[in-house]
Amino acid sequence: MTSATRAAALADQLRDAIRSGVYVCGERLVELTLSQQMNVSQNTVRDALYILQDEGWVVKQARRGVFVRAFSPDEATEVYALWAAVEGLALRWAVESLTKGGLNGLQRILKQARNLALTGDVRRSTEALLLLHANIGALAGRPQTADLLARLRNQVHLLEIVRHMRAPRSQHAQSAQIILYEKLVSLMAAGAAEDAQQLLEYLIKTDCETLLPALNYGNTTR
After folding, report:
1. What CATH topology corresponds to 73-217?
2. Residue 218 to residues 61, 62, 67, 111, 211: CA-CA distances in angstroms?
3. Fewer Cβ close by (within 10 Å): the C or N end of the chain?
């Protein structure tokens, strides 16, 4: 296994740990500790952390080290505003070239999100909705836009973890949100790009507004 492969494999492990809440926003990731825990060299850890930094999961602070990315309320508001603007553009491109296969993919993800919500697994249902957003970005067929959206979604994922830990959505609220996402996909299928974009922006804006109290509840700062 090459050093690059080892670093990528470790990045996968660390990313999964962050997404599952093993490492939380604001937590320091110490190279020496991780190298001992994972039985790899510190160089491998350093390279893995560079990968995660590029993806938006962690941030390096001068003379302090590497931390899981954390957000002030203003920073979170900026992330969601950028997300709405960029994905709104991607959605319009996606509608222009939407195929039956692409539509079926969106509907399958929605079904998964709905089923998870019905069983009370709000966290995984939210992850399914983030996958729906990822598919919209991919369907736009614009690689640079997809890359930018991927980084923004990773940061949104971190913020959703904070929400889940501090002020999780109720099962009812999650199911109500999925109904709106079903409407979104229906508008896309009908070619109503402008209406779909407005609904997408509303969904993201509402996500941000309901998240901010969870950030204010704790001390989630960079």
Report:
1. Four Helix Bundle (Hemerythrin (Met), subunit A) (1.20.120)
2. 21, 24, 17, 33, 12
3. N
